[in-house]
Amino acid sequence: MASPRDFAGSYAFSGVRVEGAATLDRLHWGDGSFETARPVTVRGQATLSNKQDDWEGEGMGDVGRFPEGRIKHLKSAFRFKGGVVWDGNADQRGPGSIHVAAGTVLEDHNTKGTLEVDTTNQRVYRPTEVAVASFLNEGRYEKTGAGQTVIVSALKNRGTVRVVDAGTLTLAGAADNRGRLEAVRSRLVVYGPLAQHAQGPEGGRLAGSSHAVDDGVLVFNLGTARSGRGPALIQAIGQGTRIELKGAGARIATAWFGSDVDALSQLGANDGELVLLDGARLDSNQSFRQGSSLTIGRGSLLRVADFSQYSELGAGGEATWLSGTLEARDILLSRGSLGAGAAGEAAEGTLRTEHLGFAGAHLLLDIDSAELYDRLFITGRVDLDGELRVDFGDAGPTLGTFRFLTAEGGVAGSFDRLVSSLDPSAYRLTAFYGADHVELKVPPCRASDLCADGAVPGRHGSLDAPPQGTRLRAGAA
């Protein structure tokens, strides 16, 4: 449906009318009308375009003279199954609907917005709008280009809505996001009501959705707090919810009287998955309960008032992975695990705290080589308890002594058990406790050692001091 020029050099818009349902191998919809009364399914590539450069070259009247030819009027249901490329040069409107099927990508290439003539007869660009009856995305909606796009329609997202190095994408209608929202060096605004945010006794809870921000900004409009004072915020990350912040500029905000307010500034609970990577920073003035999965990557910081690890849901599996910095006045690990780096990845982590207490949790230690192994640095005092679990990975055992924990405020207590991935009949693992550090010694088992069935000394004042009564079991449990 191209738009040939008429004999006078101006545009003459063509059109196609289909009375029944249509199934197309491909669709190229240019500056013309596509009249449909029944559902349309496009199995292959769909291209939606408007020749904006030609409008700019026409006389002033042309833009206003043919508004209907510039707007994509969707009068029935459109199901896209093979990819969509849309230049974003004009609106999509009408009583119809848009369905982006699973495995399909809708590319929004909006570079300038929609061209109009204002009341002074000047050409201006405004945000391009999608205003249809409903919009279901089960694939991926990906926006690029500097123009602004506003989806006025109610949006059900079961796939991914992604904005990459682009102008703002605004979801102005009601949003039901059971998929993933991504803002990559861009601004993504969810201005309509969000089905996954609910106000409860503990405050605002975000549940059943995924959000990733890479040096960009994701903005919600969460409304007013139940107290009537200030904006509603996200106080809890619920089950089935993932929040990932990547980069120093990554933020999640809520709109409040024309300003962006940090939506996570009172975050107090995580029952989903919270990930901070590549210098991301999250500051909360609340005590924080870590009840599921937490990753603080290299260069990243989580700062809270106090920190405790346990699940109120009884789900188990609480895990904190640390290769950045966790800062809290007091850190208490009642359940689950603490490990530097990520699972199977050796790294260094820092805990800025007056006190770190193990009260039933276990410490994970990965040793990849004599130089590469997990290290934890604590600025305050540490009270040890629970298990020390050592994993040597696929490369096999590395012999030697490994100082894996250093606490400037001193070390008290000891691990109840020491378990590892090594054959207990071949290697004897022993933990040695100094005044401000803990080391793991990994020698081969000698014939005189009680490696497989016997207990071995586990607490020493130093490497050369005699045993002091606390004993650990060597090898695997």
Write up what this structure looks like.
The protein has a domain at 1-118. The chain is elongated, with a radius of gyration of 30 Å. The chain has 3 helices and 56 strands. With 477 residues, it is mostly beta strands. Strand 13 (114-117) and strand 14 (123-126) form a beta hairpin. 42% of the residues are buried. The longest helix is centred in the N-terminal third of the chain and has 6 residues, at 52-57. Strands 3-6-9-12-17-20-23-27-30-34-37-40-43-46-49-52 form a 16-stranded parallel sheet, with no helix packed on it. A 10-stranded mixed sheet has the order 25-26-29-33-36-39-42-45-48-51, with no helix packed on it. Strands 7-10-15-18-21-24-28-31-32 form a 9-stranded mixed sheet.
Overview features:
single chain, mainly beta, 3% helix
The order of strands across the largest sheet is: 3-6-9-12-17-20-23-27-30-34-37-40-43-46-49-52
Rg value: 30 Å
**Given the structure, what is the number of helices?**
3
Largest sheet: 16 strands, parallel
Helix share, percent: under 10%
Number of strands: 56
Low-confidence parts? 2-9, 56-66, 452-477
- Mean pLDDT figure: 87
Question: Which class do the helix and strand fractions yield?
Answer: mainly beta
Q: Distance between termini?
A: 72 Å
Task: Give a quick rundown of the structure.
This protein is mainly β and 477 residues long.
Element layout with pairings:
Elements: E1 15-18, E2 22-24, E3 27-29, E4 33-36, E5 40-42, E6 46-48, H1 52-57, H2 60-65, H3 67-70, E7 72-73, E8 77-80, E9 84-86, E10 92-93, E11 97-100, E12 105-108, E13 114-117, E14 123-126, E15 128-131, E16 134-137, E17 140-145, E18 149-151, E19 155-157, E20 160-166, E21 169-171, E22 175-177, E23 180-184, E24 187-190, E25 197-200, E26 203-206, E27 210-214, E28 217-220, E29 236-237, E30 242-246, E31 251-256, E32 259-262, E33 269-270, E34 273-277, E35 281-283, E36 288-290, E37 293-296, E38 301-303, E39 307-309, E40 319-322, E41 325-327, E42 330-333, E43 337-340, E44 348-352, E45 355-358, E46 362-366, E47 375-378, E48 381-384, E49 387-391, E50 400-407, E51 411-413, E52 417-420, E53 430-433, E54 437-442, E55 455-457, E56 471-473
Parallel strand pairs: 1-4, 2-5, 3-6, 5-8, 6-9, 7-10, 8-11, 9-12, 10-15, 11-16, 12-17, 15-18, 16-19, 17-20, 18-21, 19-22, 20-23, 21-24, 23-27, 24-28, 26-29, 27-30, 28-31, 29-33, 30-34, 33-36, 34-37, 35-38, 36-39, 37-40, 38-41, 39-42, 40-43, 41-44, 42-45, 43-46, 44-47, 45-48, 46-49, 47-50, ...
Antiparallel strand pairs: 13-14, 25-26, 31-32, 50-54, 53-54, 55-56
